Amino acid sequence: MQTVRSLRVTILVSLLLVAAVLIVGIQSLRPKPTEAHIEGPAERTLLNAAQARDLQFRVTPGAGVDLARVSVAVDGRPVAMRQESRHLVVRPGALRDGGHVLVVTVAKSGPFGKAASTRRTFSVDSAPPAMTLPDLMQAASLRGSFPVTGTVTGATSVTVNGTAATVTGDSFTATLANPPVFVRVEARDKAGNVQRRDVPVSVRHPGMRAVHLTALGWTSHKLRDPILALAKQGRIDTIELDIKDEDGLIGYASALPQARTIHSATGYYDARKVLDELHGLHIRVVGRIVAFRDPKLGQWAWKNGHRDWVIQTSDGKAYGGKYGAMSFTNPFNADVRRYNVELATEAAKLGFDDILYDYVRRPDGKLSGFHFAGATGTPEQAIVGFVKESRESVRAAGAFLGASVYGIAATRPTEIAQDIPQIAQYADFIAPMVYPSHWGPGEYNVPNPNKNPYAIVKRSLADFGRITKGTDSQIMPWLQDFSLGVTYGPAQVAAQIRAAHENGMDSFLLWNAQARYHGAALAPKKK
After folding, report:
1. With 0-12 CB in 10 A as exposed, 13-18 as middle and 19+ as buried, what is 254?
2. Which residue has the higher pLDDT, 171 or 65?
3. Domain 130-203: which topology?
4. Is the dihedral of CA 488, 465, 425, 475 positive or negative?
5. Which residue, among 248, 265, 262, has the nearest Cα to 324 in the 3D structure?
6. Which of helix, strand or coil describes residue 164?
């Protein structure tokens, strides 16, 4: 009996062993599920607008898995794939803000196969921070700190011209060393979305009642003292002092390497000492820079193989004209422009209140008679570009930027390459040279402009006011205080000042090459 029972147990154990072997064998024949590998943003990544737009995943199935068995869906929606070798490139396309799920599925193979899936979750936030800023910012002065404030929602950080702002709630504040031309505010959120705004900064010029004085003239007591007397009497409040004159000579000992190379710095006056003296008398100082008429630079450049620095005639010779050989430098040339901008910036840092460019133009004459090496665009565009390049560095150094222009430029901009409405976009003030003696008979329907200073100045300045309307630039004309064909005295000078005033222009500069002015034409300023 015991033997039969033992036999039965043995048979049962054997059957169980056989069944186990069969099960293991069958399982070994069934394909193993294979999960795909996903390359791309990590699990639970937060994507910003740019990242979502460029989102891409790279899917690599397991070894031996046919790519045809792989499918991909985002939020349950199948998406297109592109095969690259043994990989699939997946671009989900447009995605709404919020959470998303990417699922890669490897279908089963054969009756015993089993599907496998791999998931990757991520979310999208494409909305940049909301920002509230004024359309225009105002500053009281060019020199001194400039606070910038505003409101922003949803930002984790804010910068103002690259300076980190302090963010408290929905408000931010930053303080810049001085007022720039533009304030750029950048607000960034947690996802990395960025909101940017550029806001222009307006600094109103305080105005001027100025007279011209050369660098060499400053060294003469006979010329300097009468001008200082006018200032002490309240008849003027500003002196325009030459920085670089028509000969290309710099009045003070400039430290610019180019000035040292061409020996253009004369050292006629000590700029720092002069500025301290005049500012101590509450006199503002405008530094005049004769820009492109520069025989000192032109002659050096031509002789040293830099002929593209010089305006040439149509046959490739150095232009001279009535100004003298190699007298006009090329406004298209980057080195010429850089020299003038660096000089303007240096002078502003020294303490000049304004930088006023003169000869910021091409020579007068038919354009066909000139060759501008390396020219791109028109001469008018070159001049506007130069003023634009100058403004940011001059402003950063604490000075206003002005441009002296011909009176005819209001109606004939291409004659000397001065597009007034465009220049006004970048110059803080424009100084039209509306000298009555320089107008031809019949201009503005004035038969003899030189004998009618009031009429010609009033009518010509009205045009400048009209074409610069809507800009932040002010008109501060050059007026004639010299005799040329007609004797000018206090009455003629006063008539021009009155004509400017009636155009809403109370600032002016008087020109007299000998620096001798009719003080009787200048009423003392009321205190």
Report:
1. buried
2. 171
3. Immunoglobulin-like (2.60.40)
4. positive
5. 248
6. strand
Only one residue has tokens 């006199």, namely: 283
pLDDT at 23: 46
Q: Considering the chain, tell me which residue range(s) the CATH 2.60.40.1220 domain(s) occupy.
A: 37-124
Average pLDDT in the chain: 93
| Residue 18 pLDDT | 47
Least confident piece of the model among 16-20, 288-292, 304-308, 399-403: 16-20
Calpha distance 6→2 (Å, rounded): 6
R_g of the chain, CA atoms, integer Å: 38
8 A C-beta contact, residue 297 and residue 290: no
The predicted-structure confidence for 337-352, as pLDDT tens digits, reads as follows 999 999 999 999 999 9
Contact 431, 207 (CB under 8 A): no
Residue for token pair 């105002």? 138
pTM of the complete model: 0.84
Round to whole Å and give the CA distance between 453 and 434.
9
Give the pLDDT confidence score for residue 172 in this predicted structure.
97
Nearest C-alpha neighbor of 117 from the set 61, 77, 40: 61
Question: What is the C-alpha to C-alpha distance for residues 508 and 267, in angstroms, rounded to an integer?
Answer: 28
At 310, phi and psi to the nearest 5?
-115, 140
Q: How many CA atoms lie within 13 Å of 409's alpha carbon, on the beta-carbon side?
A: 29
The reported pLDDT for the residue numbered 326 is 93
With tokens 């405008």, the residue in question is: 286
| Count of C-beta atoms within a 10 Å radius of residue 99 | 12
Assign 3-class secondary structure to 73-106: EECCEECCEEEECCEEEECCCCCCCEEEEEEEEE
Burial class of residue 316, CB neighbours in 10 A (0-12, 13-18, 19+): exposed
Antiparallel, parallel or unpaired: β 98-106 and 116-124: antiparallel
CATH tag, 209-521: 3.20.20.80
Reading the block at residue 331, the tokens are 């406004």
Report pLDDT for 27. Answer: 46
Determine the topology of domain 37-124 in CATH.
Answer: Immunoglobulin-like (2.60.40)
Residue ranges of the chain assigned to CATH 2.60.40.10: 130-203
Does 14 or 436 have the greater pLDDT score?
Answer: 436
pLDDT level of residue 34 (50, 70, 90 thresholds): low
Confidence of residue 419 (pLDDT cuts 50, 70, 90): very high
As given in the structure block, the two tokens for residue 157 are 């950080």
Q: Which of 58, 51, 74 is nearest to 121 (CA)?
A: 74
> Which alpha helices (DSSP H) does 239-378 contain, by range?
257-262, 271-280, 295-303, 334-350
Give the 3-state secondary structure percentages of the chain, helix then strand then coil, rounded to 5. 30, 30, 40
**SS3 call for 206:** coil
Pair 384, 419: CB distance under 8 Å: yes
Handedness of CA 44, 48, 49, 52 (dihedral sign): negative
How far is 210 from 353, CA to CA, in rounded Å? Answer: 13
